[in-house]
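Bench notes, afternoon.
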Amino acid sequence: MMRYITGLLLSFFAVSEAQSASLKLEPITTEDSCECDCFVGLSRASDKADKEGFKPTLVEFTSKATLRLNGKAVILNRTETKTATGWYVYEDARTKTRLEPIVLTTGKNKYGQELYSGKIRVSQNAQSVIVDVTGVDYCN
């Protein structure tokens, strides 16, 4: 039943896959990053990995979520609301920004770290962008 609901949600989000012209989600920079040992990083699924095997990080999750919208770093607070896949929704009331991860665990890499795949929806004011993502839990 959970897979069915998740499939419906992913189908719904797939309708508006393209980014809005005025809401641009960009990879975070080293200045935006927590530079910590324990975080979950999600990257654009279509991005190519560098020679070390890393993709640019779109969203970094610690106790908060960090992302970059229209050239500015935005830090979001975790809410008590969860998506259908069990991930928390993150928001910032001041910037009217909301992040909804619709992401599933897909297995583990050779280092034993959890791997993720799905979509994220980022909304700000009346605009939103939906992006296919993959990710890694660097805490394990």
